[in-house]
Write a structure and sequence with these properties.
Radius of gyration: 21 Å
Strand content: 25-35%
Shape: elongated
Structural class: alpha/beta
Helix content: 25-40%
């Protein structure tokens, strides 16, 4: 199993190109199930989760053409299997995103209940509640969601909680439903907006994109289109935290600063000098970061997917900070690993108190989930001695060539088998 070996090497300087967003690419790939015409996607990140989704679609009968360099074409005109099996779904919670489009287009779907990162309870009840409101018959049996509907009907759906995948699933399902669907308390994340924009290109009728209320007038069929995946704001935020911790000057290219304003504001509060254009972000950090308090909330507030990286930064910051995690109840599993490297963090319930220390020390640490993996990599960049990050298959689910990208700006980081 692969590991990363990291040794502190001073300031980071240069440029990093940001990949397309994993959390946008996966629902976009599933949207191909809504049409018999071809969907052409560019700026697709080459990640483990993307390859898993490719296998899932191919197992359903889709033809997937790719140059393996960020460009994919999907042909779902010959779908002959509406089942998403446990073997693939268990590794990636986003597999549930085939449920809505498959049911809406083909009248039936069987999807294994999902797995993914062990960061807490992430039930799919909002997905199922919404589909039932649209007339679907749903049975949960032997670990599978089995859904049927001759044709879904438009409905008013008020989601009990803000859920990104729930919004995406119901949004895709509603595009081919009979009548008007109103999704209230919808997620507004940039990845949801990116999906909606692509669906409109495919012929969907969607109003309220980017707001908490989406109104979808169902159409008879959708057509193919070409679409570029939005840049990954979490990858960009991770690299900005790396520079804030190690110091230096780095420019991120192909970024989307408008999608990550709260992260940029927090980095400025920590002492970084940030400049940004339409598709680039520059960071200049010459001093030890200042501790910043954060509270995770749905977009446009501070993202839960950046909590671990900011905890790593706060671990070496000047002063103490409070981190409150309101999205997932089990997302502090990186705390004991950071403490093994010399951090001073105490966590109770959904709150962590971080007392900044002047230095961390290298250690062998274990990644427990995707973003925890990233935070341990960041800690390794500034720790004295050698850090080994184990179980980095989590990291490969969401970061494309992270060791190469960090290495290009001066980090001493290598993958070992």
């Amino acid at each position: 199993m692969d590991k990363l070996k990291i040794t502190a090497n001073g300031h980071l300087n240069g440029e990093i190109v940001i990949s397309g967003a994993k959390n946008a690419a996966l629902p976009l790939m599933c949207a191909a199930l809504l049409t018999k015409e071809r969907l052409h996607l560019t700026n697709v990140p080459m990640l483990r989760d993307v390859k898993t989704t490719q296998k899932l679609l191919q197992g359903m009968g889709a033809r997937v053409m790719t140059d393996n360099v960020h460009e994919f074409e999907f042909d779902c005109s010959r779908i002959n299997n509406t089942c998403a099996p446990y073997e693939l779904v268990k590794t990636m919670r986003a597999s549930i995103l085939v449920l809505g489009p498959t049911l809406s287009h083909f009248g039936e779907a069987q999807v294994s209940l999902p797995g993914g990162c062990a960061i807490g309870s992430r039930p799919v009840d909002q997905h199922l509640k919404g589909l039932e409101a649209m007339g679907a018959e749903i049975l949960i049996e032997h670990g599978y969601v089995k859904a049927r509907a001759k044709r879904l009907k438009g409905a008013r759906i008020v989601m009990d909680m803000v859920t990104v995948t729930g919004t995406e699933n119901l949004l895709m399902a509603a595009t081919l439903a009979d009548g008007i669907t109103v999704l209230e308390n919808a997620a507004t994340e940039p990845e949801v907006t990116d999906l909606a924009d692509c669906l409109v290109k495919m012929g969907a009728d969607i109003q309220g994109i980017g707001t908490r209320t989406l109104t979808i007038r169902g159409v008879e069929k959708l057509h193919g289109c070409s679409h570029s995946v939005v840049p990954d704001r979490i990858e960009a935020g991770t690299f900005l935290c790396a520079v804030a911790m190690a110091g230096g000057k780095v420019v991120l290219r192909r970024a989307a600063p408008k999608t990550m304003q709260v992260v940029l504001d927090k980095l400025t509060e920590a002492g970084a000098i940030i400049e940004a254009g339409d598709d680039w972000i520059a960071i200049d950090m010459q001093n030890r970061p200042k501790a910043v308090d954060i509270r995770t909330l749905p977009y446009p507030a501070f993202p839960t997917d950046m909590q671990a990286q900011f905890m790593a930064m706060n671990a070496i910051a000047e002063g103490s900070s409070k981190i409150v995690e309101t999205i997932f109840e089990n997302r502090f599993m990186h705390v004991p690993e950071l403490n093994r490297m010399g951090a001073d963090i105490s966590a109770e319930g959904n709150t962590a108190i971080v007392k900044g220390v002047e230095k961390l020390s290298g250690a062998t640490v274990m990644a427990t989930d995707l973003r925890a993996s990233a935070c341990l990599v960041l800690a390794g960049l500034v720790a004295q001695g050698e850090t080994i990050v184990e179980r980095i298959y989590h990291l490969d689910r969401g970061y494309e060539n992270i060791e190469q990208k960090l290495g290009n700006v001066g980090a001493r980081i290598e993958r070992i088998s």
